[in-house]
Amino acid sequence: MDVWEIVRSPHIFEEKDLPVGMLLWKMVESLRSSKIITGGRSNATITKFILLGFSDLPKLKSALFVVFLGTYLSTVMCNLGLIILIRIDPYLHTPMYFFLSNLSLLDFCYVTSTTPTMLSGFFQKPKSISFIGCAMQYFCFSSLGLTECCLLAAMAYDRYAAICHPLLYTTTMSPSLCVQMVAGAYISGVFGSLIQLYAILQLTFCGPNIINHFFCDLPQLLVLSCSETFFLQVMKFVIAVIFGVASVLVILISYGYIVATIWKISSVQGRSKAFSTCASHLIAVSLFFGSGLCVYMRPSSDISQNYDKMASLFYTVVIPMLNPLIYSLRNKEIKDALKRSKKRCVSYCHC
């Protein structure tokens, strides 16, 4: 009898007063004491995992579901709306908004790769996922995250070219270069995730098979693996350095030149206008890298799992919703484009 068969047994959930998460952890302790799991590991290879999600908060289940569902729907509408607006308005056909539309596409895919699984987990006990499904979910999530790192760096370079070399901006940021930069970001993200996926598929899992998270993330898989994870730990750190730290350095260097150029502008109004074009990007960069690096630059451990879950919730659910708002609320061109679209809609309805 493996761990999964025991989890499916009806008697596991006889104690109705305990939250599902506590029941599952109680089950693991029971297995250990009965020697079905020896030293915390079973003799059988695990092929399925149980995602605890937020089952340890049963009293808040309905409220959390409504909040996360509302956040997800808002994220989808805001990001898709921004993509459509940039697509249909000719005044927004510039490199800056080309990158922004791709950022919105990434955020839409990013939140869709994790949130539907989390929402469905509110109504299933326990929420299970196969090892292959778990690995593929992480691959999709990781590819989008690494791509966003590269894209944010490309957007910083775009702001550098616009502010530091305005006369050469059109020539420098040609349509072909913009396409190449975006394509390079996607290819780099997929390649970096493929390396991790190959390493993950080499891992073996002997039990327990409970993931204290709402999606399959690498730190949690490393904790549960009964094979040697040193190489994958090093790989995780190296990829975080290459994509995270390198992207941050590109952004910092770009903004170093930008600040030096803005400082030379004599008028206060000119400085304010130049800085306003960068403020939204700086906020988005700070939120994304601040939360992401806190999770992936630290060693995996059981103690940090609840912290990782909260940090992951921020950059997988909250940030994708905030990004289109950050770029829209402070952006006069986006507001003007919305007004033009509204006028076109009114004219079309009258016809």
Q: What do you see in this structure?
A:
It is a single chain. The chain is mainly alpha-helical. It contains 13 helices and 5 strands. The chain has helices at 3-7, 20-33, 61-88, 95-112, 115-120, 131-164, 169-172, 175-201, 218-224, 230-263, 268-296, 305-329, 332-350; strands at 37-38, 41-42, 48-51, 127-130, 210-211. The strands form 2 sheets. It has a 3-stranded mixed sheet. It has a two-stranded antiparallel ribbon with strand order 1-2. Strand 1 (37-38) and strand 2 form a beta hairpin. The longest helix is centred in the middle third of the chain and has 34 residues, at 131-164. The model is unreliable at 1-16 and 27-43 (pLDDT under 50).
Please write out the topology:
Blueprint lengths: L2 H5 L12 H14 L3 E2 L2 E2 L5 E4 L9 H28 L6 H18 L2 H6 L6 E4 H34 L4 H4 L2 H27 L8 E2 L6 H7 L5 H34 L4 H29 L8 H25 L2 H19 L1
Parallel strand pairs: 3-5
Antiparallel strand pairs: 1-2, 3-4
Strand order of the largest sheet: 4-3-5
How many E strands? 5
The 3D shape can be described as globular
Report the uncertain regions. Answer: 1-16, 27-43
What characterizes the major β-sheet? Answer: 3 strands, mixed
Estimated share of beta-strand residues: under 5%
